[in-house]
Amino acid sequence: MSLSEYISVASLILSAIGVILTVSGLAIVYFKIILGIFERLTKLEGKGKTDPAVLERLKALETKTDLFWGVVQANIPKLLRSPHTPVEDALLDKLRDDTINRIELLDLRHLLQCDLDDEINKKDLSLSIAYILAISLIDSKILDGSRRSER
């Protein structure tokens, strides 16, 4: 391999890492904002000072978030199906249909993380982003399930 080919490959790898870090960073910031709002609202409710404007904004944010994850849940599993992964496909179907339990979510998350690692090595950015969204959806479902069990 020549030096220019190495530089080209290194540039592609750095670009892939940059895209993945950007998408991950945006998701982390987004969820930190939402968690901050929930924490502030919880503190306000505990003091009996629930502001109707805050509740209205929170409902609007929750609606937008639910719409986003609904689209991800309906479409991303279709993109990730493969004839060579029947177990993963069955779990993706359960994720899409919202009939998946916590243990299956954890199993699917592990399988998708392994697939994501493979796609990053292959430099397939579009499929990598689909895996990142699916893993983020699973993480949000696991977090929601943990919150429900705490109540």
Explain what the structure shows.
This protein has five helices and no strands. The chain has helices spanning 3-46, 52-80, 86-97, 102-122, 125-150. The radius of gyration is 19 Å and the shape is flat. The protein has 151 residues and is mostly helical. It has one domain (3-146).
Features:
87% helix, 151 residues, mainly alpha
Biggest sheet overview: none
* End-to-end Cα distance: 59 Å
Percent in helix: over 70%
Given helix and strand content, the structural type is: mainly alpha
* Strand composition percent: under 5%
pLDDT under 50 segments (min length 5)?
A: none
> Roughly what is the average pLDDT, rounded to an integer?
81
Helix-strand pattern, N to C? Answer: HHHHH
Q: Total helix count?
A: 5
User: How many individual domains?
Assistant: 1
Global morphology:
flat
Provide the gyration radius in Å: 19 Å
Please count the beta strands (DSSP E, at least 2 residues each).
0
Topology at a glance:
Layout: H1 3-46, H2 52-80, H3 86-97, H4 102-122, H5 125-150
